[in-house]
Amino acid sequence: MIRIGLIGCGAAMQQLHLPAITQLPGIKATWIVDVEMERAAVLARKYDIPNVTDDYTQVTDVDAVLIGTPHYLHAPMTDFFLDCGVHVLCEKPLAIKISDAERLVTKARDRNLILAVGVFRRYYPISSFLRHAIEIEWLGSVERVDIEEGASYKWDLQTHSMMERRKAGGGVLIDTGSHTLDRLLWWFPKSEVMLDSYHDNSECGVETDCEIRFYVLWKGHQIYVRAELSRTRTLRNTFQIFMSSGMIEVPANIPDRGWFLDHRLSKLAEDIKPLSFDLSDQINGRTTIQSYFRYQLRDFCAAIKTGKEPLNAGSTVIPVVLLIESCYAKRQILQEPWVNFGMDRILLNTKEA
Amino acid sequence: MRIKKILVTGASGFLGCRLVEQLLLGEKVPVRAMAHRAGSAARLSRLPVEIAWADITDPKSVEQALEGCNVVVHCAYGVRGNRRTVRRVTVEGTRILAEAALSCGVSRFIHVSTVAVYSYSPPSGVVEEKTPFIRSGEPYCDDKIDAEKIIWKLINKRNLPATVLRMGNIYGPFSAPWTMRPLTHIRDGYITLVDRGNHNSNMVFVDNAVEGILRAIKEEKAIGEAFFVTDDELSWKMLYGYYASWLGNVTLLSIDSTEVEGMLHLSFADKLRSTYQAVQSVFLPVAKYIWQHIRMSQFMGVMVDALLKHIPHRLRTQFKNLILLKEDMLPQDSRLLPPVNLLQVYAGRAIFSNEKAKRMLGYRPLISVEQAARITKDWAHWARLI
């Protein structure tokens, strides 16, 4: 039985991780930690967790921890638990700074501990399918990728940290982008990334909208990528992968569906429509998003038992942490004409008698 | 009056957020933005603004939010939760905020109200600010009346230095009711005009609404007065004509106001539908709550998952459809009609004139209809609405 400590009781922990833990055999939550003891105590009672504290350094006698705290605490907490000889599954992003992420990965490797990151979308059947389809050049070599993911922000946040630059490390890029860009870079293993431009609408706060343009250098190809992310707009919400003989399009957050266009088929008919494909389990039906948190946890447990790297190993998220850090370092202002319009006139002032 | 700091309540909302933007980036005055739920404050949080996370129905947190502010702009009203919670935020929240503002001696209190205090079907012709409220049983309208009444009582009995601004229908970037919804309705072939859209829409472009607020803060004469803040006359046909042109010259569909009146006397099918919707609105949240608890519980969750595996996927989907969406199972009009209260607004012949605001506050709708349309179009395109 793996004894796991749960650090942070935010929305993701309550709605996604905790249900996964209770449904998985061979793992038992023995500690629950939150700065608000009352919230932790309620969950402890509900899920029968014996130990509650508001100080994570008090956690003892655990084999692993699951960290779901505000972003800025991910690195120091992971560091602490690795020092304690405990395996860590940390919510994304692993760290805000690449130097922290690299240090944590090295530390975990040196101490022979499992360090996994909550990039659960890698477990979608569509993710492995695409990684393979790209690898075997199913529709030819990849030429360009266009990504759009955005919807009105609806998380029932327990704290305000996600809306504070210092604590969140950024906005939609580090939050949604940690999933979206991670998946893309995971499809191109051992690639290099060259940032072209990054624009966002933050005015010193956390951005709601951003656009990233970069090149992925992979197997001698230079693949142009455009990614647009939003917390305010409903965007297309798909990955479009343009390949030399066709195009594959997959929804950003649907685990098992997609469609493709094979130009080679146009020899058969003038007007070829995209053909859809469905990777869901035909016997058991569709799987909910929640199930992928269970798969992620099962992989983490298996990694602890066997020592084999999980699919979401810390070392594999380094490229996305690096890309995000580079984006913020080279930030340019995303023009929103409707914001600055009519601001050239001052009616009030603070000096008026 | 020297502005020390302006507290904006409802700062994560559509109008509140735009006001904060203008105050910070344009006027460059110190601002504290009051908001309740972080999850709704994405757009506000991109600004370099001090945010007071406060529950307006909690006097202590309101007091803290007010500290150091001598101007309050009250945009908050209830939008989430059950009927009681929504009313509590709109009415009780206003009382708590206004009383706290009185105790800490603010110099200005701008209460953002609405022309809906005259119901969704106000009397025809020019309505004046002194016209008595019209109760209609519509929760939003009646709650806003009660909130305003609290302000008037405090103005009259305890000299609250307040101004009431009754906003017209606010359109522009990020406006859900008057830009996003009509664009979707027009695109989807809904009826969006009554009497061919010839009546006055009583619209105000969001930046002009902000202009009204700034004028009310600036002008001392505004204290103890109510003002309508609207653009100069703009018909539904003209505004929705812009929207339709952006969507590729979609034809705007219209019905007669006599028909809208008829709709107010519900047919049997309508009664059946509204009863069903009422039952559904109670049943669904309860069912979802129970369902989530079953799925989360240690034993039941596994059992339910195991059971579900044995029910064919198609059958599960059909059952879900049966519970979730029954609209089309009921007899109804084959035309795509928006809610009746929206049709009532379209059918209204009232004019909420900005005459008094112009006269006393020096208010002008700074952004012309053409400019407003251009800005809104740019935004709508960016927001993938057109």
Short description:
The complex is a heterodimer of chains A (353) and B (386). With 353 residues, chain A is an alpha/beta fold.
CATH topology of the largest domain in chain B: Rossmann fold
CATH architecture of the largest domain in chain B: 3-Layer(aba) Sandwich
Whole-Å distance between the termini of chain B? 45 Å
Largest interface: A-B, 53 and 60 residues
The helix-strand sequence of chain A is EHEHEEHEHEHEHHHEEEEEEEHHEH
Poorly predicted ranges of chain A (pLDDT <50, ≥5 residues)? none
Oligomer kind: heterodimer
How would a textbook summarize the main sheet of chain B? 7 strands, parallel
Shape estimate of chain B:
globular
Name given to the CATH homologous superfamily of the largest domain in chain B: NAD(P)-binding Rossmann-like Domain
Q: Beta fraction of the residues of chain B?
A: 5-15%
Mean pLDDT of chain B: 90
Question: Mind telling me the C-alpha Rg of chain B?
Answer: 23 Å
Question: Largest beta sheet of chain A, briefly?
Answer: 9 strands, mixed
Physical arrangement of strands within the biggest beta sheet of chain A: 14-13-12-11-7-10-9-8-15
Overall geometric form of chain A: globular
Order of helices and strands of chain B: EHEEHEHEEHEEHEEHEHEHHHHHEHH
User: Distance between termini of chain A?
Assistant: 72 Å
How many helical elements of chain A?
Answer: 11
Q: Please give the domain count of chain A.
A: 2
